[in-house]
């Protein structure tokens, strides 16, 4: 039982990341009709926003300490972060410690700006081109973005820890009346799940309850008619692209403490998220979220030793297997709408 | 009346074709007149450095390349000479190899066997490389070693830790300076017993390829010999990034030690995940839960950050060693690049000097002559103490370091501390040891 609870938690956690990325992919596909293979790269850039802010906070000046020596036997240069000398070691230390949550604020304008530049600078020229062209250009863009990050940050993962206060783990065992220590789960992963829920809720509320959202939804249903009503739908769609980029970026920022970011992390998620979108139904936002969590949980269960002893290697193929079954039985995906990508 | 078609132009054409025809065999067999592949005829000799310049091990590859360039500089008489001054063999004198200036070409393995073979092939066939060296994965090393055997050039392996490289996949043209998984197990076991006792239950997470399998086999064997029980061994895909679903079952498996047979990005992520799940604060069977990372590297420790503190593993060499050779190497590398070398840099630097020295002693670049000079060669002064290049399997036998993630690092490089230097005798095994059986060195191939 405790093992099952743990895998459900793991699944929700993985599902959060899949759902956030798939949500952005679907937003872009639903509004602009573009299959954006650079979306994983946006997730990666988000994580590197956290790395960058952490590096900025850690910018230091060097003082030569004659009493110590470095690896070559020269006097040691002791580094003190500027933040600590400006705000004192206590507040300065706290700012450095909370770099990842602070990076949320730092990353939003950056991600929206990157989204705008991508859309206006490149992707808009491909709206009328076939999907294959769009996939090729966005995939190429993803590789370019990856290589840029690798050039500046190197190929190795960069540790970006969560704040000290959130590094421990929560004992569900004691909480739910099981044996203590039987079900423990890291705080930060719980935070990630809660954060994803807030973002997903926020995006849905924005589309559902604001005039802007209503126009966008109307545009998704019938772009031409909305345009005929004198509404500049293109501008709104560009804004949606920025928002989708920000959602991917935020997913990346919060993911940085879970696994040390490296330049390749976006690609690892992109393929899975794309499957999530297809399973959920192209263009369906609730479908993307539902499929994200569903596949996350399935993947976690498939990694259980008990399951793997019956079906070896099932953890590697479960997502694709489920995708095939769903597409065979429901060709439009779980919640796909009629007419999407069917012309 | 008969008419001859013979014209002046026709005659010239025919003679030219006939001449070319007669010359043809010598044109095409010119290279076969050489005694071996890529026999250097000019005033220089070309070495091929095949390292990952892109892909997940690119930083490790970059460090290897730095060390190669430093070795070439020293071989050609530049710089301060580094470990050439401390090397017990004095055959090298800074005038290149056998008076020929050392030049090099580089290839990108991308940590993919096919890409690595393609770049090695290109360096041998197009650039005339007389020797191939490098790599930072056992899969790549075994693939390139096979290619070099067929092509008739020497392969000096870089960072490869799988038993198979000098076990079932050993080749007469291939040589490994780096230690292997068996040695890690043999060196770690006594330290683990001292620290954690002989009544432990271990759970293994293992990267699913040749290196992971042989390391798991080695560590299981050496810890079970101590009396430890192996609760479970789980293979994880090399491409995995989030290990939470593999870590979660460890919590209630009854295990009190987690062994991570992971390297590079896999190790960084699995260790980070294990620490996040509170494994290090956990008490199981009345004992503190422990994590062991049998193969450590400083570059990996950097990626895992705080999580490596207090965690034990083994390594081939570490820059903080205080022998004259290590100090000389750290000094010349540190002054040139501004930071200390990694174990990958150390092993490839050694391999380059060892190759050059063997050519010099053998008086030839012929792979068979070089192999003979390396086989059974005993040396010292390259940072690992007395070392033997064993003739039977082309594996170096030397001391192995047991290291621990440092609790209070004084700098960004000061991440590991040496806990014990395990003497070579303790990690030496018979050439026909079951973990290394099944292969055949074969005979050296000079190619051509």
Radius of gyration of chain B, in Å, reads 25 Å
Report the sheet with the most strands of chain A, covering strand number, pairing sense and barrel closure.
2 strands, antiparallel
Oligomer: heterodimer
Structure summary, number of beta strands of chain B: 17
Fold and architecture overview:
Chain A: It comes from Roseovarius halotolerans. Chain A: Belongs to the binding-protein-dependent transport system permease family. LivHM subfamily. Chain A: This is High-affinity branched-chain amino acid transport system permease protein LivH. Chain A: It is a multi-pass membrane protein. The complex is a heterodimer of chains A (343) and B (448). By secondary structure, chain A is mainly alpha-helical. Chain A has one domain (2-59, 98-329): ABC transporter involved in vitamin B12 uptake, BtuC (Orthogonal Bundle), CATH 1.10.3470. Chain A is built from 14 helices and four strands. The longest helix of chain A is centred in the N-terminal third of the chain and has 31 residues, at 2-32. The model of chain A has no long low-confidence stretch (mean pLDDT 88). Helices cover 39% and strands 18% of the residues of chain B. Chain B has helices at residues 8-29, 58-75, 113-125, 138-151, 181-196, 210-226, 244-251, 265-276, 298-304, 324-337, 343-362, 367-374, 424-427, and strands spanning 44-51, 101-108, 131-134, 154-157, 174-176, 201-207, 229-236, 257-261, 283-284, 287-288, 290-295, 312-315, 377-379, 387-389, 396-397, 400-405, 416-422. In chain B, strands 7-6-8-11-12-16-17 form a seven-stranded mixed β-sheet, with helices on both faces. In chain B, strands 2-1-3-4-5 form a five-stranded parallel β-sheet, sandwiched between helices. In chain B, strands 13-14-15 form a three-stranded antiparallel β-sheet. Mean pLDDT of chain B is 90; it is low at 24-32. The interface between A and B is large, with 46 and 49 residues.
């Amino acid at each position: 039982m405790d093992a099952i609870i743990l895998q459900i938690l793991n699944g929700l956690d993985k599902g959060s990341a899949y759902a956030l990325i798939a949500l952005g992919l679907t937003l872009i596909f639903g509004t602009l009709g573009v299959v954006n293979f650079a979306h994983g790269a946006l997730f990666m850039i988000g994580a590197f926003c956290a790395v960058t802010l952490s590096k900025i906070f850690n910018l230091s000046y060097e003082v030569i300490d004659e009493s110590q020596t470095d690896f070559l036997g020269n006097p040691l240069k002791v580094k003190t972060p500027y933040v600590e000398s400006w705000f004192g070691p206590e507040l300065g230390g706290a700012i450095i410690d909370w770099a990842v949550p602070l990076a949320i604020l730092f990353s939003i304008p950056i991600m929206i700006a990157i989204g705008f530049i991508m859309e206006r600078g490149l992707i808009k020229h491909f709206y009328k081109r076939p999907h294959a062209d769009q996939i090729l250009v966005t995939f190429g863009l993803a590789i370019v973005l990856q290589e840029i990050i690798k050039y500046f940050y190197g190929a190795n993962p960069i540790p970006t820890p969560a704040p000290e206060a959130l590094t421990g783990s929560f004992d569900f065992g004691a909480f739910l009346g099981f044996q203590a220590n039987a079900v423990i789960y890291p705080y930060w992963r719980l935070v990630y799940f809660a954060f994803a829920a807030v973002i997903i809720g926020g995006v849905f509320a924005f589309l559902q309850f604001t005039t802007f959202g209503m126009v966008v939804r109307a545009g998704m249903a019938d772009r031409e008619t909305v345009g005929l009503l004198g509404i500049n739908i293109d501008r709104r769609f560009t804004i949606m692209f920025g928002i989708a980029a920000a959602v991917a970026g935020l997913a990346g920022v919060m993911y940085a403490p879970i696994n040390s970011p490296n330049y390749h992390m976006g690609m690892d998620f992109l393929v899975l998220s794309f499957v999530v979108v297809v399973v959920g139904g192209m263009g369906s936002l609730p479908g993307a979220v539902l499929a994200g969590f569903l596949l996350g949980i399935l993947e976690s269960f498939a990694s259980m030793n008990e399951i793997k002893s019956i079906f070896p290697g099932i953890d590697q193929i479960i997502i694709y297997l489920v995708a095939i079954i769903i597409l065979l039985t429901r060709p439009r995906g779980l919640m796909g709408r009629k007419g999407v990508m069917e012309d | 009346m008969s008419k001859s078609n013979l014209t002046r132009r026709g005659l010239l054409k025919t003679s030219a074709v006939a001449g070319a025809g007669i010359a043809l065999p010598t044109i095409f067999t010119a290279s076969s007149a050489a005694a071996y592949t890529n026999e250097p005829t000019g005033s220089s000799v070309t070495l091929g450095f095949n390292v990952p310049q892109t892909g997940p091990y690119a930083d490790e590859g970059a460090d290897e390349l730095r060390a190669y360039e430093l070795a070439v500089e020293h071989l050609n008489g530049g710089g301060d000479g580094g470990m050439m001054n401390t090397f017990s063999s004095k055959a090298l004198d800074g005038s290149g190899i056998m008076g020929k200036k050392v030049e090099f070409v580089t290839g990108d393995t991308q940590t993919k066997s096919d890409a690595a073979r393609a770049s090695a092939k290109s360096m041998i066939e197009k650039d005339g490389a007389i020797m191939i060296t490098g790599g930072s994965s056992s899969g790549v090393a075994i693939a390139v070693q096979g290619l070099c055997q067929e092509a008739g050039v020497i392969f000096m392996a870089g960072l490869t830790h799988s038993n198979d490289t000098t076990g079932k996949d050993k080749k007469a043209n291939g040589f490994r300076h780096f230690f292997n998984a068996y040695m890690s197990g043999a060196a770690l076991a006594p330290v683990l017993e001292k620290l954690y006792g002989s009544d432990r239950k271990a759970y293994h997470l293992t990267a699913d390829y040749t290196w992971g399998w042989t390391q798991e086999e080695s560590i299981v064997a050496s810890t079970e010999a101590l009396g430890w029980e192996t609760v479970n061994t789980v293979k994880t895909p090399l491409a995995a990034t989030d290990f939470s679903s593999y870590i979660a079952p460890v919590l209630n498996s009854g295990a009190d030690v987690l062994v991570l047979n992971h390297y590079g990005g896999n190790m960084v992520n699995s260790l980070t995940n294990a620490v996040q799940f509170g494994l290090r604060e956990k008490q199981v069977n009345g004992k503190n839960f422990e994590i062991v990372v049998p193969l450590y590297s400083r570059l990996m420790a950097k990626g895992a950050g705080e999580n490596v503190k207090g965690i034990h593993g083994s390594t081939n060499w570490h820059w903080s060693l205080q022998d004259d050779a290590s100090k000389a190497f750290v000094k010349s590398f540190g002054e040139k690049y501004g930071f200390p070398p990694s174990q990958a840099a150390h092993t490839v630097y050694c391999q380059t000097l060892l190759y050059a020295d063997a050519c010099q002693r053998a008086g030839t670049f012929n792979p068979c002559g070089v192999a003979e000079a390396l086989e059974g060669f005993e040396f010292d002064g390259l940072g690992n103490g007395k070392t033997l290049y064993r003739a039977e399997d082309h594996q170096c036998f030397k001391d192995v370091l047991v290291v621990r993630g440092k609790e209070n690092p004084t700098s960004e490089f000061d991440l590991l501390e040496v806990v014990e230097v395990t003497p070579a005798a303790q990690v030496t095994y018979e050439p026909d040891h079951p973990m290394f059986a099944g292969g055949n060195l074969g005979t050296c191939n000079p190619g051509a």
